[in-house]
Amino acid sequence: MLILWVAVVLLAAAVFFKALSSPISKLPGPWHTKFTGLFLKYSEFLATRRLFIHALHKKYGPIVRLAPNEVSFTSLDAIREIYASGGSGYDKTEYYDLFRQFGIKTMFSTLDKHGHSQRKRELADRYAMTNILRDKHLASIRDSAQSFVSKCTRTTSIDVYVFLHCYALDGVSNFMFSPAGLKSLDRPEDFALMEELTYHQSLQKNLLHYYLPQLAPYFPSFLLPRRSPMTDDYVHTMANQQSPDQHSLITRLVREESPLDRMQAAAECKDHMAAGIDTTGDGLCFLMWELSQERSMYFQDRLHQELRDTSPETPLDQMPYLDAVIKEGLRLFPPIPMSFPRYVPQGGRTIDGHFVPQGTIVSCQPYSVHRLHEDVFPDPERFNPDRWMEEKGLAERNRLFFAFATGGRGCTGRNLAMIEMKILLQAVYSRFQTMVAPDMQGCMDIDDQIISSRPKDQTCKLIFKERESVSS
């Protein structure tokens, strides 16, 4: 028994010494984070990791120790070092294994930056703005926007959360699989796919699989992450279609000289479909909700003025206030507001003036980056698109805009998302005023999922009122 107690004491002493001798033990943070990451894991299971980290940054500053082997940063220098050094930044952690599709690594779930770069080369040209702005792609997005407007102007109160996710799904599926993309705004069978991809709650189940991989094969069925059989069937069918449009994503991925087989192409497309519906659908929902508040009517009216006075032939990138409204929405409500974890490379690195050993998990989260630089974003909790119209400080604001991450591993689909958002907002606010519906009872707080976020109650009821300048 004495030997056992001696062993326990020695083990505890070793853990204690290792914790206190680590370079990151000297970084700011709660005392308990020198010894355990349980508090961080607990916040993850409660879906409050983002708020937990943000509160620590508000208390301790731009560098915070989260666990014995994890540190969070908010500075521009840290963002550049972690995500853009060497072009693609540091390698991803195993957390991204959760985002495999059909058990296959996609570009998003590839951990090392070399493998990611190889995969990105296979599809980067499809997400180039020149390809997205092709007439056929734009026509498809505009058709979906008109279908959305038609749905939302039929009755006095409309749950736009539903139809914005349809719009996002139709946009990304037509971009990938044209001419066989989905029409969930108009076809009930396609609407069912939107519901399958949107209405779920599997954060805790995914985290159990991540933290307990050895036990995962023995979990009962109610602990299994969500399944999406209709989406799987659709993606497999599309990956094997015979004559897709030459500028679609699937054409690029299954071309004769492609290094991807059909299953890998299908996995990549399913990943892009899920990402597209979350980022565009939820981003638009948060933005339209904010624009519909009484406090934001000035901004909505200013947006309408620009859209009304702009010729239909004007390119989308020549509407500065439309761009400002979207960027401010994404600043306050980034579709992925939480951390992007990375491993410090071999040999360790100096980040924000502090040496961090190799293998340490480091990250920045857009939610905090966009709120804690009050010298760059004054009154940061306030929705204010006008801040993006000021020349003074614009370069610094753009450098700290982190909604799509940055570097070689930043969001590949950002161009598509921005075009979809601009076209939808143009279709709505050139003609209509939106207001919160009297029967809106749902909570629109940011609700964290496994990596993205969404409105907490997944409902957003608005009223569309046609403006007199249009109807007269």
TrEMBL record:
Its cofactor is heme. Heme binds at residue 411. Keywords: Heme, Iron, Metal-binding, Monooxygenase, Oxidoreductase, Signal. Transmembrane segments: none annotated. The keyword Iron applies. Residues 1-21 form the signal peptide. It comes from the Eukaryota. Gene3D superfamilies: Cytochrome P450. The keyword Ligase does not apply. One of its GO terms (molecular function) is heme binding. Pfam families: p450. Belongs to the cytochrome P450 family. This is Cytochrome P450. The lineage of its organism: Eukaryota, Fungi, Dikarya, Ascomycota, Pezizomycotina.
